[in-house]
Amino acid sequence: MAVLELQGLHKRFGEVVALQALNMTIGSGEFVAFLGPSGCGKTTALRIVAGFERPDAGRVIVEGKDITGLPASRRDMGMVFQAYSLFPNLSALDNVAFGLRVRGMRRSQRTKRAAELLDLVGLSTMAGRYPHQLSGGQQQRVALARALAIEPRVLLLDEPLSALDAKVRMQLREEIRRIQTKLGITTLFVTHDQEEALSISDRVVILSQGQIEQVGTPAEIYGHPETVFVAEFVGTMNRIPGTVAPNPNGFIDTAAGLLRVEAARGHAGGEQVMLLVRPETIDIAPLHNAIAPLGGLVGRVVSHTFLGSVTRVAIASSVGDIKVDVGSTQALSLAMGTEVALTWDPGAPRLIGLTGTNKSITHTHLEGVGTMDTQQPEPASERRAG
């Protein structure tokens, strides 16, 4: 186990700034995910930690020792890539034992160690098989066992599950977390998949344009986003722009009139803000007698998206389309065209002022209103910056 520190990392590829003064400390035995859209700098950060890229500025520190100038082969780190990168002419056992052979371990010892690692990842019966005889998930398990065989101080995972189908991906991410917890290895996991990051990490680092937007536990990142970018990137978020009412008494003024939100009490009257409401926190009911709910919204059902036990209902309103998650049984009573009332617990929504950093972020992400789902297309000029 080891403490990993990233101090002021900066990296540029031509005109593209991949990282800007990145600072982060990963505790001993901690599992941290770097999460962000393509081109945000997460893979560049991992490659600098691994020794495959040199930063233009900044340092990589492991257990108090500056390893920035060390080659990858001397950093005592295990790495699992998106591509399995197994040697096709070696069996699963010999693939796992390869790093031990390079380090000069006796054959009997490395064979025993490799067998133990294959058993750890559930492939003890596959030791003699070659990569082409294994499924994608099995090959990735072998790659994980190979990375662990050298007993690295730090484990680096570069989108190791993205090439697998959904069911295998879910099984393997749970297996990775189980093994990491059992061995207590400090782990840095790079992914663009929100579900992966939130489901297995101790902490999540949200990156955008080479900078850290927020660091927190999965619950903090999802439930208490600190910027509009984080709120929109993680999960689905309804966005309603408005202005804090002159008397900050828990209301904001919007295109739909006054909406109730307790967080408005912490903002100055007249401040421009963005109201952020998760679909699952909104209550929906047919609108009776055309009476609008106090501090809520009215609208009309325009679509259903079946998601299993939950159905996402889109509501056309005067502040744009609002998405609401309801039980699929309840959704049956909300036919297309039904007029509905939308309300929420006043303490549930987040409110972010559109000033400073948040305002600069909103120029590209907040055109219009309503709900925004994530995953931005990757600019061709930034693909190397990952």
Poorly predicted runs: 357-369, 371-385
Radius of gyration: 25 Å
Number of helical stretches of at least 4 residues: 10
Overall geometry: elongated
Secondary structural class:
alpha+beta
Spatial strand arrangement across the major sheet? 6-7-8-3-9-10
Helix content bin: 25-40%
Sheet having the most strands: 6 strands, mixed
Number of strands: 21
Summarize the structure.
With 386 residues, the chain is an alpha+beta fold. Helix content is 26%, strand content 33%.
How does the SSE layout of this entry go?
Layout: E1 4-13, E2 16-26, E3 31-35, H1 42-50, E4 57-62, E5 65-66, E6 77-80, H2 92-102, H3 107-120, H4 136-149, E7 154-158, H5 166-183, E8 186-191, H6 194-200, E9 203-208, E10 211-216, H7 218-223, H8 228-233, E11 237-244, E12 251-254, E13 257-260, E14 272-277, E15 282-286, E16 297-306, E17 310-317, E18 320-327, H9 328-331, E19 339-344, E20 350-353, H10 356-365, E21 370-372
Parallel strand pairs: 3-8, 3-9, 6-7, 7-8
Antiparallel strand pairs: 1-2, 1-4, 4-5, 9-10, 11-12, 11-14, 11-21, 12-13, 14-20, 15-19, 16-17, 16-19, 17-18
Helix pairs in contact: 2-3, 2-4, 3-4
Characterise this structure.
The chain has 386 residues and is an alpha+beta fold. Helices cover 26% and strands 33% of the residues. It contains ten helices and 21 strands. The chain has helices at 42-50, 92-102, 107-120, 136-149, 166-183, 194-200, 218-223, 228-233, 328-331, 356-365, and strands at residues 4-13, 16-26, 31-35, 57-62, 65-66, 77-80, 154-158, 186-191, 203-208, 211-216, 237-244, 251-254, 257-260, 272-277, 282-286, 297-306, 310-317, 320-327, 339-344, 350-353, 370-372. The protein has a six-stranded mixed β-sheet, with helices on both faces. Strands 11, 12, 13, 14, 20 and 21 form a six-stranded antiparallel β-sheet that branches. It has a five-stranded antiparallel β-sheet with strand order 15-19-16-17-18. It is elongated and about 80 Å long.
